[in-house]
Amino acid sequence: MQQGAFADMLVCITEFAKNQRFQKVSLQAIETLKATVPNMVSCPETMLYPSPDELSDVPITEKAAPIAPTTKMTRMDLHVKYWFPVLFAFHDILMTGDDLEARTRALGYLFDTLVTYGGEFPTKFWDMVCRDLLFPIFMVLKTRSEFGHFRNDEAQTMWLSTTMIQALRNLIALFTHYFDLLERMLDGFLDLLVTCICQENDTIARIGSSCLQQLILQSVKKLRPEHWSKIVTSFVQLFESTTADQLFSAATKGAAPESQNKPYDADESGDGENSLQINGLAPPILDTYEPDEILKEHSPDEKRQTVTNIDLEDYKPASQLQQQPVVTAARRRFFNKIITKCVLQLLMIETVSELFSNDSVYNEIPSKELLRLMSLLKKSFSFARKFNADKELRMRLWREGFMKQPPNLLKQESGSAATYISILFRMYHDDKVERRQSRDAVEAALIP
Q: What total of structural domains would you count in the chain?
């Protein structure tokens, strides 16, 4: 401390932690880095934690921040000089380290340190930590092609599926722990979660949805109307981003998918055999069925009646010799992106259903915002119903190789309608003052 070489020492330790040959050296270096934190805090030269006597004349709102030493350094200067190099060292290891265990330890120690000592950080320093250390961890989700420190695609995939997912969970836990300090940055946290949920990678999307629920559930008693407005606005973005509008133009002759000039994604199928697989996911929303299977359960008389009822849905080819159409790789990518949106829309419906079946969440959200959320479900229902009713479009999509069987959005239609009706009925029968005041709006939404 006295020689002014603290930051240089941390850089040296970090380089040992990132060495690619000796894991034991890496782990020992990270443990050494962790041990510097309590030593730094207790060191008199840092003046990070003054004694109670030094705080006696400080307003109570300022007692969470340290007193500047006699060198006229501000509290912010102190934290930038001592805390930032320590936190950046952990950040550097988890972002660029090759060894998974080393990255995992660095990640854990970074968030442990923030949870343990973050209550003493000045507001401006928290802004710096979030802007320069925490949010950049997830920049790869927005600009993956420009994130060049990975050796290859396999290394990037491993980093995304391990380090980044754990970092996201820790980040949301940190936000809920220090909600009062970080609430002003709610927009940034919600934007990050929206980005995660809109990924084509099913694992990242579902983790993002889970973290969004965690953020709401763990902060539900602290959320004010302005917070709820921001949360519902994020749901608006999510529902709009995951609405597969291209379904109604995908079968148009001569349509040119925007993704034609994009690099081929190794996770996407280039042929028709695996067209239902996107990043390892078999989309549950695009149900298909064979009419013969339905007929098996009925008597001969019932069969005749059933045939009449399902005649519009019978797309089976007249000849068993009909071949599956050849679909180019670019067109397959285009189709897969549409299917992914359908899957994510169903994920959003499930998320809303799970969240608002929780009594605490339902009781805290203002009626105005809950009705706004219901309008999203109604729109999703109407979209799915319109698509399901368009036999000609679905038949063209099937014939062009969109899927191996006729597509439909039955789960989206039924799931959005069920959630919509369930929540509106609950609001209608709710005797709390705010709910009673919105009963006319609930009736207007429910009765049609």
A: 2
Question: C-alpha distances in angstroms, 237 versus 190, 249, 260?
Answer: 11, 22, 25
Does 230 fall in a domain? no
- Same domain, residue pair 50 and 196: yes
Can you read off the two tokens belonging to residue 175?
């936000």
- The burial class, CB within 10 Å (0-12 / 13-18 / 19+), for 86 is buried
H or E, element range at 340: helix 329-355
Are 307 and 212 in the same domain? no
260 in a structural domain: no
Q: Same structural domain for residues 179 and 304?
A: no
What is the C-alpha to C-alpha distance for residues 39 and 132, in angstroms, rounded to an integer? 24
The C-alpha angle 429, 350, 184, rounded to 5 degrees, equals 85
206 and 342 in a common domain: no
Residues 283 and 209 in one domain: no
**93: domain range?**
6-222
- What does the alpha-carbon distance between residue 24 and residue 13 come to, in Å, rounded to a whole number? 13
H or E element that contains 93: helix 84-96
Q: Which token pair is 198?
A: 């809109």
The verdict on residue 20 lying in a domain is: yes
Residue 141 to residues 83, 145, 173, 240, Cα–Cα distance (Å): 27, 10, 20, 19
Phi (first) and psi of residue 268, to 5 degrees = -95, 140
CA distances from 353 to 176, 236, 413, 422 (A): 22, 15, 14, 9
Q: What CA–CA distances, in Å, run from 146 to 142, 155, 196, 285?
A: 9, 15, 17, 33
- Cα pseudo-dihedral 31, 33, 37, 40, rounded to 10: 130
Burial of residue 171 (number of CB atoms within 10 Å: 0-12, 13-18, 19+): buried
pTM, rounded to two decimals: 0.78
- Dihedral sign (CA 380, 386, 391, 396): negative
pLDDT at 5: 79
Q: Are residues 185 and 272 in the same domain?
A: no
Residue 376 covered by a domain: yes
- Cα angle 259, 260, 264 (rounded to 5 degrees) comes to 80
Q: What is the mean pLDDT of each run of 10 residues along the chain (448 residues)?
A: 75 89 90 90 66 37 41 73 91 88 93 93 93 91 64 76 91 95 94 93 91 96 96 97 92 47 35 33 40 37 41 47 70 90 95 95 96 96 95 90 89 96 95 93 92
Q: What is the CA radius of gyration of the chain?
A: 28
